[in-house]
Specification:
CATH topology: Immunoglobulin-like
Largest sheet: 8 strands, mixed
Number of domains: 1
Strand content: 25-35%
Order of helices and strands: HEEHEEEEEEEEHEEE
Distance between the termini: 89 Å
Length: about 270
């Protein structure tokens, strides 16, 4: 009888320990993968000024889409000591908003960031390996081609065109894509001995650029979008990669899991 009671006690303790272990996961982790499948883009009544400033009235009617790490981001693969460090490290949150008019698709990103980092200071660079940046991917629903667009805290940008998955084209000629980027920083970039608080970035993607995929970019047309952030910092055990919609794997070319871009209303005609 005593052995049975001890066995029951140990079993109960083991179950409780397992439950506690599950609850140590970072707060954005979910056992069941969920994603926001629709990304709504309301029409902009006036052209948005790309200056990195979230001006009153410019973005108020656009929904904020929160960022999450992909389901496989790696927590389960960490060693016990690495998990302890990760558990003490906050996920630096942020959101994206999207709007459009007859000439541009506009993207706003706003992020918490305790250490601003980006060592690349040129256009047309693969800046996801050198520091903080955003990545916007756009794809017509019924075509294989898609765009991959970067913006950095230094106001630099990159355009990559994929005729199909696995094949990309970077224009290394003088930068003429028309892509506009501007960031506003709350802190000092590339100085990790102080405390930063975050950064905002605005991007304007020309409709003429988007439509080089061969599909019209307008209400009534079916497009998909993925909005991503790369976050580096001396305060982080590893870079934090996040997106909206949330992905089942950390792979930004899973075009089947991009969100459906919903144009909310037709833009006003030019005067």
């Amino acid at each position: 009888m005593g052995i049975s009671r001890i066995g029951l006690t140990l079993s109960a303790f083991g179950a409780a320990l397992a439950l506690c272990s599950c609850n140590t996961r970072p707060p954005e982790w979910e056992d069941e993968w969920v994603s926001q499948d629709i990304v709504a883009a309301p029409a902009a009544r006036d052209q948005i000024k790309i200056d990195g400033v979230i001006s009153p009235g410019e973005w108020d009617d656009a929904q904020a889409y929160q960022l999450s790490r992909a389901k496989d981001w790696g927590y389960e693969k960490l060693l016990p000591r690495q998990r302890k460090i990760e558990d003490r490290t906050p996920f630096e949150r942020g959101f994206f908003k999207v709007k459009y008019d007859a000439e541009y698709l506009y993207v706003l990103g706003s992020f918490k960031d305790a250490d601003l980092v980006q060592t690349s200071r040129e256009n047309q660079k693969l800046s996801y390996g050198t520091g903080d940046m955003i990545e916007v991917l756009l794809k017509p629903e019924h075509k294989s081609a898609f765009w991959e667009l970067y913006g950095t805290p230094w106001n630099h940008c990159t355009t990559l065109f994929y005729p199909w998955k696995g094949h990309s084209y970077m224009d290394n000629q003088p930068y003429q894509s028309g892509l506009k980027v501007a960031a506003m920083l709350s802190g000092t970039i590339n100085k990790n001995d102080d405390a930063d608080t975050g950064w905002d970035i605005e991007m304007a993607i020309p409709r003429t650029l988007i439509e080089k995929t061969g599909e019209e970019f307008a209400p009534g047309k079916e497009w998909r979008i993925l909005l991503c952030r790369y976050n580096y910092g001396a305060n982080l055990p590893s870079k934090q990669i996040s997106s909206t919609p949330r992905l089942p794997r950390t792979n930004h070319h899973l075009t089947e899991y991009f969100g459906k871009l919903k144009f909310k209303e037709a833009p006003a005609a030019k005067k």
